[in-house]
Structure formats: C-alpha cells, structure tokens
Amino acid sequence: MHMPKKPVSIRIDPKIHQDAVKAAQTYGMTFSEAMQILAASFAHGSLHIGVMPTRYPPGYIEQLEKEADEADESLRKGKLKTYANADEMFADILGE
C-alpha cells in the first residue's frame, strides 16, 4: 500500500486502537494502512457507517412513508386485495 500524502492525527479510545491494531495485524497491515483503507472506502461511498445520508431525492422517503401509511389504512378498511400465498397472487396478476 502506498504511503498517504497527508499525515493526520485522530483521537481514539485506547482500547479501540489496541483492538484495531491487532485486527490490522491479522491481515498483515499496519494500523495506518487500515485507516487509509477505511478513509478511502468511506470517501468513495463503499462504506456506510450507521445512519448515513442517502442519495434519494428530497422528499422521496417522506412520500414512501405517506404511501405506506395510506396502504396500511386501505388494508385496515378492507379496500385492498389480499392473497393467501404468493402463488395465488401471481396467478391473479398473470390472469391464470
């Protein structure tokens, strides 16, 4: 792995640091190399930690929640068709 171009300093819990050093060593890496991979993965969007902002357009999740609430209400009122199993549903959809 190439050396980072910018040295950085981080504050980390000593126990987490110790565990991370050991984990990195099991892969034949240094702690610094592991942090480089972590930072690169995070920066390129291939690593998601906890609740991350999504790339959905503004209002998309709210619209989905609204539609789900409306569907739940329709189901409670008996306005939606229900099926006993997936085969029954597909037969209906395919007109069989």
Structural commentary:
The protein has helices at residues 14-26, 31-43, 60-76, 86-93. With 96 residues, it is mainly alpha-helical. The chain starts with 13 loop residues before the first helix and ends with a helix. The model has no long low-confidence stretch (mean pLDDT 86).
Quick tags:
single chain, mainly alpha, 2 domains, 4 helices
Major beta-sheet overview: none
- Measured by DSSP, the beta-strand proportion falls in under 5%
Mean pLDDT, to the nearest integer, reads: 86
Q: Could you list the spans in which at least 5 consecutive residues all have pLDDT below 50? A: none
The coarse silhouette is elongated
Tally of discrete structural domains: 2
Q: How many β-strands, per DSSP?
A: 0
Question: What would you say about this model in short?
Answer:
With 96 residues, this protein is mostly helical.
Question: What is the secondary structure topology, with strand pairs?
Answer:
Blueprint: H1 14-26, H2 31-43, H3 60-76, H4 86-93
